[in-house]
Amino acid sequence: MKCSRVSRTAAALIFFGTMIPAYAQRDGQGDKRGGQRDREQGKQDKGSSDQRAPKAEQQQRQQPQQVQRQAQPPQQQQRVQTQQQRSEQSRGKQQPRRSEQQARTWQQQRGWSPPKSGAWQGNSTWQHTRANRWSSDHRTWAQRGGYGGYYIPQDRFSLSFGSSNFFRIPSRPVMYLGYPRFEYSGFSFLMLDPWPEYWSDNWYDSSDVYIDYDDGYYLYNRSYPQVRLAITIAL
After folding, report:
1. pTM summary value
2. Sign for the pseudo-dihedral over CA of 225, 141, 107, 95
């Protein structure tokens, strides 16, 4: 009887001894699977954050540019738009051809200042080429009866003239035929309008200027895009 109880106890101990490692093995595998899932989830989260990071950096880079564009002074925006519109209009106009002799005759007759046009008659000194009131002192080529001077060949005009080809006049213009004369790109130009009273005394070498065509040649100052001075090629 005593041997029977000992046998049953031993059998029970053996049974429980085999079950405990099995449960422990399953628990270990469960922990491993759980750890693997956590690592995979961590990789996904890291990948998502890595993908979001470049977008965030790109947005941060774009924001200063947007702010800079928004902060651009309205006057500067208007100046740029005016120059672009003027350049497009100039490209759409073809300059006619005129012989050098015809242009020279027109110059000798001072065709830029016909009677009753009220155009500025020039002066003998630079100090007196400044306008008293430019808004009423200047004249367009339409008001002068049209441009009758020499024309710049189209290929040379496209290369060196227009709003994208600005320059500075290196020295004060000299007087010729009663008008200020300056040189640019192999041509000599006469300023037929007085320069505005609100320009600085040394505007010619301190401001960016350019020459464009609009049924006649004009000198533009980039700091004052609404102002243009009628000019002609001097022969």
Report:
1. 0.65
2. positive
